[in-house]
Amino acid sequence: KRAKTGRHVENYQTQAFTLARQQFAMETALRRAIEERQLRLAFQPICDLASGAIVSFEALARWRDSSGVEHQPSDFIPVAEESGLIVPLGRWAMDEAARTLRWWDDACGGHCGMRVAVNLSAIQMQRDDIAPVVEAALIRHDLAGDRFNLELTESAIVSDPDRIAGIMHALKALGTSLAMDDFGTGYSNLAYLQKLPIDILKIDRSFVSGMLADRDKIAIVRAILSLAQALGMRTTAEGVESNELAQTLAALGCTYGQGYLYARPLEAEDALSMIVAARAA
Ligand code: C2E
Ligand code: CA
Ligand code: CA
Ligand code: CA
């Protein structure tokens, strides 16, 4: 029996070691990918639920490595966070989002009518000085701050509330809007909502998808919507995959929707085609 337990421990250690090695391999590859510009941004439309009009695009990191393998953000973002590579990755994403918006504006002969949402990781906010990074991107690409919506998670606020509050006010002073991402999945103390300058609550997909057939989910969505309304915040529902869901959310007073009903994350040029088509209509 003892031998069996010993082997079990050994297997566990071997597995842990293999996992650590895989993580390290991915970290090395990701460091090169950032340096060699193998990353790109995909853009997913966010629509006004009542009218269906596109109002913004969320910028989502994509990584195709030199052997052609497409890695998922759910795999490489955690590695970037653990290794600190989220700092250069996040700086790149902000600048690339601004560069793309400048391109879209130029292609439309002026303001293209869209905002871009950029994700800020809690680890990135702890380790980097974000407001100057955002300001530099605005200046470099000649854009007003109100063209950006920055998405934060509750974990950023938990880590260092006072410092994060200062950063959020500095970002607001640049003209950007702030969204609380994946709302409802993290921190449960809601006191921060009244103290921090949050414009939008993004309702996590885990509550939205399947809510039509689940009384508990719909109750949570309703509660988040009434909380946001009471606090004067707008709302975005993630994971809107059907027309019925979009109509129900609109009837409940949700402001925006994002999901496969409207489009999957698109290459920047395909997003531009969508903008141009919407402007012509
Ligand atoms: P997120 O911020 O919650 O982004 C939304 C995710 O939901 C995206 O996954 C998007 O492709 C997916 N999605 C959108 N609509 C639907 C839908 O209707 N159904 C389903 N099933 N999924 C939908 P993606 O692109 O794989 O990104 C995963 C996460 O990785 C993001 O979640 C975000 O937390 C993180 N991430 C992506 N890019 C960046 C980045 O540049 N910086 C940081 N810090 N995080 C990023
Ligand atoms: Ca997000
Ligand atoms: Ca989200
Ligand atoms: Ca989410």
Structure report:
The structure is a single chain. The protein is of the alpha/beta class. The chain has helices spanning 2-35, 73-83, 86-107, 122-127, 130-140, 154-159, 161-173, 192-195, 205-208, 215-230, 243-251, 268-280; strands at 39-48, 54-64, 70-71, 115-119, 148-152, 177-183, 200-203, 234-237, 256-258. Strands 1-2-4-5-6-7-8-9 form an eight-stranded mixed barrel, surrounded by five helices. The longest helix has 34 residues, at 2-35. The N and C termini lie far apart (74 Å). The model has no long low-confidence stretch (mean pLDDT 93).
What's the helix and strand layout?
Elements: H1 2-35, E1 39-48, E2 54-64, E3 70-71, H2 73-83, H3 86-107, E4 115-119, H4 122-127, H5 130-140, E5 148-152, H6 154-159, H7 161-173, E6 177-183, H8 192-195, E7 200-203, H9 205-208, H10 215-230, E8 234-237, H11 243-251, E9 256-258, H12 268-280
Parallel strand pairs: 2-4, 4-5, 5-6, 6-7, 7-8, 8-9
Antiparallel strand pairs: 1-2, 1-9, 2-3
Helix pairs in contact: 1-2, 3-5
